[in-house]
Amino acid sequence: MGSQCAELFGEPLLELQNISFYYDTLRVLKDINLTIHRSEVHAIVGEHGAGKTSLCLMLSGFLKPHSGKFLIGNRTLVSMAQGKARNLGIEMVTQQNPVVDNFTVAENLFLDNRGIASHPFISRKHHLEVARAYLRERDFPLDPNILLRDMKLSDRVLVDILKHLFNKPRLLILDEALQKLTAPMLNKVTQQLKDLKQTGMSIIFVTHRIDDIYNFADKVSIIKNGEILITDSVKNIDKINLIKLAYTQISGNDSLENANQEFYSLLKYNEAVLIKLPVNLIVVDHHGKIKLINEYAKQYFNIEESSYLNMPFQELFLVDKDNREACGLIEGALGKQQGQTFYNLPLHRTESESITNIKTHPIYDESFLIGYYIIIEDVTEREKLREQVVLSEKLASIGLLSAGVAHEINNPLEIICNYIRYLKFHSKNKIVARTVNSLEEEINSISQIVSNLITFADSSKHQVEPVELNELIESIINLVKYNAKYKNIQISFNKQSNPIFLRVNRTEIKQVILNLMKNSFEAMPSGGRLNIQTGEKDGADSSLVEIIFQDTGTGIKRHNLNDVFLPFYSTKKEMHGNLGLGLSVSYGIIKKYDGSIAVRNLDGCGCEFTLRFPRKKDER
Questions:
Q1: CA-wise closest residue to 356 among 343, 367, 373, 369
Q2: Cβ proximity of 108 and 148 under 8 Å
Q3: Which residues pair with 504 in a beta bridge?
Q4: What does DSSP assign to residue 169?
Q5: Backbone angles phi, psi at 22, to 5 degrees
Q6: pLDDT for res 539
Q7: What is the DSSP string of 183-209?
Q8: DSSP letters of 230-279?
Q9: Torsion of CA 557, 492, 497, 465, to 10 degrees
């Protein structure tokens, strides 16, 4: 069947061979083999959490596979960095559509877009002219001068799609983007995509709307639990079989005497299937009393074998008062005759907090309502990954803009500095001299801001050397210990007993550690404790080096956690000289070495920053 499909389309554009990906210990994709042909529209379908988005992120360079390879023409690649993917003509419209709300349509179309000009700093008038011509060519009546925050979601998604089409990609990836468009807009976009397909462009689109697959796609791949179940021409799979293959469903039983008997008979009939389903599943009767919890849900809620039977489901959720929102939504859904889905709900369990999608669905036997099933999907890791992708895209766009702004400011700044130096050494008027000194201080402040912008935008690796991490941290602690004593801050350092060597630029890593210590000091104006810890987690071929900073400061507001890495963002606006660039610069440096940085609030008070750097075993 696969060879017949290959004959229907052009030559292969991209091949994936045995691609696998793990998020920490969680397997997301396993041995993915997939071929995308030229002039082909390829749909990806599957349940939530099946691995569809991770596959797309890997194709566009946001994620690196742990094994497998990509074949593009006569080239073989073991990973696809973002820059390399774009150079190869691969563009991706993500689920989050990370457009900038405070920018206009024109500015969003061409932000970080190499198709309009090679120089990053161009005039607003030129933006508008090119945007008007482009929108006219595409036949979309959008005002290029309107701010994105004033637009509807469907129009914002359209701007994101048009932005990625501007560079005429060879492969366009749409991750659940089409289903956010209005019906008229969807018809126009799909028609234009079909026209572009005739010019040789290929399209991958992820969707849950079955009709879109049959209206638009040539081929479809079904992903289940991180593996491709089947890839075939759309015309070879009917809708019913596609739904059965892609999604898990619970079916009713035959005629029974009454609703209560029906319910228990249904459970008996399906128990073997339900109990082993790889999802957190709870089955309740129409009064909301628990009749079955499968193995996954038992582990998830850490409950005993039969302690749940006939217990109101509220007792399972209300072990923590913070679960009232989720509990109230489920209570309301159990009175409905149709299924309900609630996205990104926080769920507190005994020792942890998760982000979940909760789905309820009624169970009928013919016209009798005999109960409900509740599915709880833990999307915590996926949300963390999504937030990292959004943050990376934001920082990439801001970095390009920062480089252009810094370049334009530097030239006149240098001229102003020269004039100030001349006045300083040639003026004998004391009042002028004091004024010049004040000006020099302010100019130096501007120069420091420009220098930080350049550092933030610099993605190149400087000269690297083996750096012993514990020794470096100890030397920095000795450097700041008197300042810490003055601020009544106690510093403790729990280091790994064995030396930890990283191949990095010593000055850059020193800057990261100093920035994080400075951040902790500022969060504890009345004193406190800072604990620094180093360690290493071993893997098969590599290890992860960890540096953890924990302070007893004020913490960070929950909705601000990801914003702390954005330039000029600061929770300490009242502090003179705090520009909000330290964590942005640190984030950029860490990403240079394929590392990661995460932040979370600690119970009680304070927050924790965790840095992770990959290290091959032969680098030890």
A1: 343
A2: yes
A3: 465
A4: -
A5: -120, 140
A6: 62
A7: HHHHHHHHHHHHHHHHTT-EEEEE-S-
A8: EEEEGGGS-HHHHHHHHS------S--SSHHHHHHHHHHHHHHHHTT-SS
A9: 70
Centroid of chain to Cα 594: 16
What pLDDT is stored for residue 550 in this prediction?
A: 95
Distance (Å, rounded) from C-alpha 125 to C-alpha 315? 61
Please tell me the distance from the alpha carbon of residue 542 to that of residue 122, in angstroms, as a whole number. Answer: 44
What pLDDT does 115 receive? Answer: 54
Read off the tokens for 230.
Answer: 């089947």
CA dihedral 139, 142, 143, 147 (to 10 degrees): -150
Distances (CA, A) of 465 to 251, 444, 468, 501, 516: 62, 31, 10, 9, 22
Contact between 1 and 164 (Cβ < 8 Å): no
DSSP one-letter code for 602? P
pLDDT at residue 588, as a whole number? 81
* pTM of the predicted structure, to 2 decimals: 0.46
pLDDT at 393: 64
Distance between CA atoms of residues 205 and 215, nearest Å? 13
Q: Label residue 582 left, alpha or beta by phi (over 0 means left) and psi (-120 to 50 means alpha).
A: alpha
> How far out from the chain centre does Cα 317 lie?
28
Predicted local distance difference test score (pLDDT) of residue 258 = 47
CA–CA distance, 43 with 440 (Å, rounded to integer)? 60
Amino acid at 414: E
First to last CA, the chain: 49
Task: State how far the Cα of 591 lies from the Cα of 83, in Å rounded to an integer.
Answer: 14
> What count of Cα atoms within 13 Å lies in the side-chain half-sphere of residue 462?
10
Q: Alpha-carbon distance 17 to 67, whole Å?
A: 9
Reading the block at residue 589, the tokens are: 């440096």
Partners of 135 in beta bridges: none
Q: How far is CA 562 from CA 54, 554, 609, in A?
A: 20, 16, 12
DSSP structural state of residue 151 = S
List pLDDT tens digits, range 379-403. Answer: 887 777 777 666 666 666 665 556 5
- The residues with which 230 forms a beta bridge, in sequence order, are 222
**Regions of the chain where pLDDT drops below 70:** 1-10, 112-123, 240, 244, 247-274, 276, 304-307, 318-321, 350-351, 365-368, 388-408, 411, 448-449, 451-462, 539-541, 558-563, 567-581, 617-620
pLDDT for position 559? 59
DSSP string covering 319-361, please? TSGGGHHHHHHHHHHTT-SS-EEEEEEEEE-SS-EEEEEEEEE
Q: Residue 218, SS3?
A: coil
- For β-strands 202-206 and 41-45, DSSP reports them as parallel
